[in-house]
Amino acid sequence: MPILKSQLTTKFPFRNPHVNTLYKFFTNKEKPTYQRKRITTWDNDFIDLDFLTSDSFSAVLLIHGLEGSSESSYICSTANYLRDQGYDVIAMNLRSCSGEDNNILKTYHAGKTDDVNFIVNYLIDNYNYTDIVLCGFSLGGNLILKYLGEYNQTVPSNIKGGIAVSVPIDLTSAQAELSKLKNKIYMKEFLRTLKSKVILKSQKFPDYNPDKKLIAKASTFRDFEEIYTAPVFGFDGPEDYWAKASSKPYLSSINHKTLLINAKDDSFLSIDCYPYEIAESSENFYLMTPKYGGHVGFVSTFNDEVFWIENQIVSFIQNQLNTYS
Fold it and tell me: What is the superkingdom listed in this entry's lineage (predicted)?
């Protein structure tokens, strides 16, 4: 039942998903005037939160995608738009993504929901927010969907729901899609920063001694998961990680109203990342699949001031979650 229909009206050349994706990724957006708060974690590490406040009792927790940060273009535009609508915004920087390497060998991965749970409870324990909405993009969206399904019995009442944008909910098939030639430019950029982080970790932690030649040769996510994610986080291998970290198996367990927006032309996503049957049989999980938008793009024209995706986020918050600033 909860399949929402809303189409992005695009003009040339933004009907090309790569133009839409790259334009949003590399367009400089006005950086919000964040106030940073460093949170010490249970494992002697830290997570940096960037606050953009408007003295509201309603807040939105934003989580960026792979190798992004609170300064990613899509986070900046969303944070500013939400602030202008009267919401407080907390942009969560995943471990190692705030401009400073984290303290321990482990950083983050697509299914590491214990960090999301930790930050949610921190916000509830330390701030007077009566309503908190979770909003994630790409990998951050996978974290939010998995968290809401995995922790469905213990999600605090202050959490009103979630919104996830451009999410590879099935990591096994999505990584295969990203490994195709059409996505070579994105894969190369992701691996450029991921490889540098692995080298840094191997220098800081002598017991972690990956083969430097394998790091240099790594050209797919499978290569990276074998070098870092699987051994460091205790998975049996890339396939085990992808299966356990994917949010798709948790969607049916979500009992808070939650929206997933995946553009049909997103070159990062496989057919398994469009869960129509799950949405049709759910009372809480909503799905929207506009024809155009690319990956975390959703731009309609040059110098776009329409803010289509930001509008969809606020509309869902106000109309479905009944949360007002």
Answer: Bacteria
Q: Crossing angle, helix 238-245 and helix 171-178, to 10 degrees?
A: 120
Q: Tell me the per-residue pLDDT of 109-118, one tens digit each, with 9 for 90 and over.
A: 999 999 999 9
Longest dimension (CA), the chain: 53
For the stretch 46-81, pLDDT in tens is 999 999 998 899 999 999 999 999 999 999 999 999
Among all residues, which ones are annotated catalytic?
138, 266, 295
Last residue of a domain, one of 224, 245, 266: 245
Is residue 110 classed exposed, middle or buried when 0-12, 13-18 and 19+ CB atoms within 10 A define those classes?
Answer: buried
In the chain, the number of structural domains is 2
Q: Which domain holds residue 151?
A: 17-170+250-319
**Regions in the chain scoring below 70 on pLDDT:** 1, 28, 304-306, 323-325
Q: Are residues 276 and 226 in the same domain?
A: no
Q: Which residues contact 39 (CB under 8 A, 6 or more apart)?
A: 46, 47, 48, 49, 118, 119, 122
